[in-house]
Specification:
GO terms for molecular function: FAD binding; monooxygenase activity. Keywords: Monooxygenase, Oxidoreductase. This is Monooxygenase. With 387 residues, this protein is of the alpha/beta class. The protein has a domain at 5-69 and 103-172 and 271-350: FAD/NAD(P)-binding domain. It has 14 helices and 19 strands. The chain has helices at residues 13-24, 49-57, 61-67, 89-96, 105-114, 162-167, 237-243, 251-256, 287-290, 299-316, 320-349, 354-365, 369-375, 377-380; strands at 5-9, 28-32, 44-47, 69-70, 73-78, 83-88, 101-104, 121-122, 127-132, 138-142, 147-150, 152-155, 174-186, 196-202, 205-212, 216-224, 264-270, 278-279, 282-284. Strands 6-5-14-15-16-13-17 form a seven-stranded mixed sheet. It has a six-stranded mixed sheet with strand order 8-2-1-12-19-18. A three-stranded antiparallel sheet has the order 3-7-4. Helix 1 (13-24) packs parallel to helix 10 (299-316). The longest helix has 30 residues, at 320-349. The two termini are 18 Å apart.
Length: 387
């Protein structure tokens, strides 16, 4: 069983986590990435208690804690800084057995990549064809003319997955209705609580402030827009400062400290939940399977969970196809709920009507703090038993 060979297409968080999980179970795994090198750009991301538990199962929990920033609290405020809702992250950590942290994407990818042997990661390998064999197994063809054959293929090639396109051509990304800018700034603004994640909900858009280790702050700004809206094509630092004029401190200070060259801008998309992830000797994981909007901070976390569940399923089934179907059954309902909940939160958070914003804020303020923690249970309390 342990000699089975697996092909992972995609060298992002999902692909690397999956490769590590399978190698830990004794499987032969290679990762094939289409780009010339593993992508280390990006900004910050959240690793919730569920995801950190998954990383501990991969043997990497301590490394993430070493590079990550432990959160003490998460707040939602209005544009003037008035509190809408607050969650005590320390209490959440005590309930679910581990911390909630933030980490820079580049630091996370470095931890993952160094946990795999150098000869197990191939770059400049753009997948162009996939052929399943009647007797089992699969062959992947690459743009450079090379091929590789294995017992199973794991498609971890992102929201615009080329492999998924072959299997489900009708499954295309759907626009969430807003566009987003992100960046990382050195130095913690005066008066800002460097252990608190803050998200501002206002009629002109949403602004998030996320502390990172090393006196860095990751921020993001979301504005309602049409997909590929030309109005925002050249929207940079100065335009963002004007747009968020009147929002509370330190939003302006963070924007002023940002570098236009370091701004990341992209429209936000997700995938309408599917009814299957398994296709014979091929399985979809990560964003290729269940890309979500970032409103629950679960994009990376669900990829980490996928890795643990898939490795356990393969270790407990002699048939690759049966293991993939078992994985699918374990993951479909949970990822569907997360995708749908995150999309709904995004719609509510992006209200532009001052009347609706006022009603929303009042309703959120009326929710007891204990209810906020209780509502997190479905996200953070995960049982990794696949039997």
């Amino acid at each position: 069983m342990a000699s089975r060979k697996f092909i992972v297409v995609g060298g992002g968080i999902a692909g690397l986590c999956t490769a590590i999980a399978l190698r830990n179970k004794g499987f032969d795994v290679d990762v094939f990435e289409g780009a010339s090198r593993l992508k280390e750009s990006g900004a910050g991301l959240g690793v919730g208690a569920n995801a950190l538990q998954a990383m501990k199962r991969l043997g990497l929990g301590d490394k993430l804690l070493e590079k990550g920033k432990v959160l003490q609290a998460a707040r939602i405020v209005n544009e003037k800084g008035g509190l809408i809702a607050k969650t005590d992250s320390v209490k959440v950590s005590s309930l679910f057995g581990t911390d909630n942290i933030t980490i820079h994407r580049a630091d996370l990818l470095h931890i993952l990549a160094e946990s795999l042997p150098g000869d197990g990661i191939w770059t400049n390998k753009k997948c162009v064809s996939v052929t399943q064999h009647s007797g089992g197994g699969v062959t992947v063809g690459f743009q450079d003319g090379s091929t590789v054959t294995g017992d199973g293929l794991i498609a971890a090639d992102g929201i615009r997955s080329a492999i998924r396109q072959q299997l489900m051509p009708e499954a295309t990304p759907r626009y969430a209705g807003y566009t987003c800018w992100r960046s990382v700034v050195a130095g913690v603004p005066r008066g800002y609580e460097a252990t608190t994640f803050t998200e501002t909900w206002g009629s002109k858009g949403r602004f998030g402030i996320v502390p990172l280790q090393g006196d860095r702050v990751y921020w993001f700004a979301c504005i309602n827009a049409a997909a590929r809206d030309p109005k925002f094509a050249d929207f940079r630092k100065a335009a963002l400062i004007r747009h968020f004029e009147g929002y509370h401190s330190p939003i302006r200070e963070l924007l002023e400290a940002s570098n236009d060259d370091a701004l990341l801008h992209n429209d936000i998309y997700d995938l309408k939940p599917f009814n299957r992830f398994a296709f014979g000797s091929i399985v979809l994981v990560g964003d290729a399977a269940h890309a979500t909007t970032p409103n629950l901070g679960q994009g990376a976390g669900q990829a980490m969970e996928d890795a643990v569940f898939l490795a356990e399923c393969l270790a407990n089934h002699s048939s690759v196809e049966e293991a993939y179907v078992r994985f699918e059954r374990l993951r479909l309902a949970r990822t569907r709920k997360i995708v749908n909940t995150s999309r709904t939160i995004g719609k509510v958070a992006q209200f532009e009507s001052k009347l609706l914003c006022g009603i929303r804020n009042g309703l959120f303020r009326a929710i007891p703090a204990r209810m906020n923690v209780r509502q997190l249970r479905f996200l953070l309390d995960v049982k990794f038993d696949v039997r």
